[in-house]
């Protein structure tokens, strides 16, 4: 769903272009949408019970289910005691950071296939390298564990299950009609993440934090394609996958993904799994900038209290230019230009070069819509029959609802058939938006709800008008199974891998204790103490291992009690820190914020001062 602010912008742009748009479904009062509903068995009116699509999980407030409602119905249910309703918002995987994703770049006019040869990746099939992240985190100074005692669950875009770098690792996973088989990865994201954690030491390729296969890995696949059908996913999908991970015995959940909207239901599930002993690690986000003052917005699930939020540094331990900066950042790991594994059997296009109508060759931003199952030509001849303007009505449907009608999909089918009939090899598409609507509007359509195996790319409306539809086009993609990627997505598995490695040596520790030790032993590389850029600092596997070996699982107690958390229950005598003061609970309490005005007959009483 788009924000009301963005809706107002696009509506203004449409009206400003003098385009008459009737019945665009902007008024959604009578339109149903999927909602997350948390309810107790006795609180839900009987007429709504049959509308529940499925139940997903349990939290302390009751059952969490998925239900289809109008806004009016959702508002009415929200007023019932014991019922909570939240829109099941769409979330996106954090794709590798790309600062110039839509920038035009002019390139040499004598483009040939030779431009795309990458001997470095080809050589990795014959030799083995240790990525800088392994040494920077000092993971190479801690021996691989002898036993498979810890399991990591990777919630992502799947994994190339038969990649040679995973041969010694016990892999398993879950697939669905929505996301397809877990052992395929058309996005290359999940395979890259997994490689940082578990790539095997086998004399070729790369090595991960745990390189002997001693950490079992369970894969929960969320995205089928990068930008085509079933590429986006919702809060309900995340809840389901976290639940499956925990039920499969995962000790650590890695989520290199996120969304800008928080969810009380998602937070409750995170808290419940944490209380069960699961350690959850997530990416802080790629929306940061060290060039601006102030903090960046939160990304979730990373910014929940019971999730380790991971920021990114480069090989010189400088903060990555894209890494989010805020008070929820907990720890830092390498995330700039990280070398790891990718799916060598699926095609993930990473560069698109085209001939302009005015002459010359340019590269620009694009989105790959197809499944990645069909090879792309390195160089091919475009033709009018392989150039498709997506109708404006389809743009409106995709922008506001994230779906295409059967008629719109039939238009794609016809365009694909026409391209194939003329022996075309790649279909290039763009939205036919009216003049006056800014370029960012069509770029803001993240995904296109269309499933195809035929090579299909989409570009913005401005780029579409610049391309010579009868000129040459070139596509670049890597088929050697290794690639550099950047993002907090790449930093996160370093933390999950170190946690798994250290925990495997000391399986009697709890997930919370491992988290505390990793934070306590991190190398302070920013402002003294915990800061908003690096959190507690750069993760240090050797220091964490040495600390537990010498001192056990518990870090030294702070002079202050733990900070009060609104979603945690406290009993009589429990102490917390809040705004630099110590409070003691007079009786059981939850969601009641401590206050200086409270006394012995209130939930909290002031017990002292404490400067954190």
UniProtKB/TrEMBL annotation:
Matches recorded under Gene3D superfamilies: Carbohydrate-binding module superfamily 5/12, Peptidase S8/S53 domain
Signal peptide extent: 1-22
Stretches assigned to the Chitin-binding type-3 domain: 561-607
Active site per database record: 156, 189, 489
Gene Ontology MF terms: carbohydrate binding; hydrolase activity, hydrolyzing O-glycosyl compounds; serine-type endopeptidase activity
Signal is among the record's keywords: yes
GO cellular component, one term: extracellular space
UniProtKB keywords: Hydrolase, Protease, Serine protease, Signal
Record InterPro entries: CBM5/12, CBM_sf_5/12, Peptidase_S8/S53_dom, Peptidase_S8/S53_dom_sf, Peptidase_S8_Asp-AS, Peptidase_S8_Ser-AS, Peptidase_S8_subtilisin-like, Peptidase_S8_subtilisin-rel
Gene Ontology biological-process entries: carbohydrate metabolic process; proteolysis
Record bears the keyword Hydrolase: yes
Family from the record: Belongs to the peptidase S8 family.
PANTHER family assigned: CEREVISIN-RELATED, PEPTIDASE S8
Protein name: Chitin-binding type-3 domain-containing protein
Organism of origin: Pseudoalteromonas phenolica
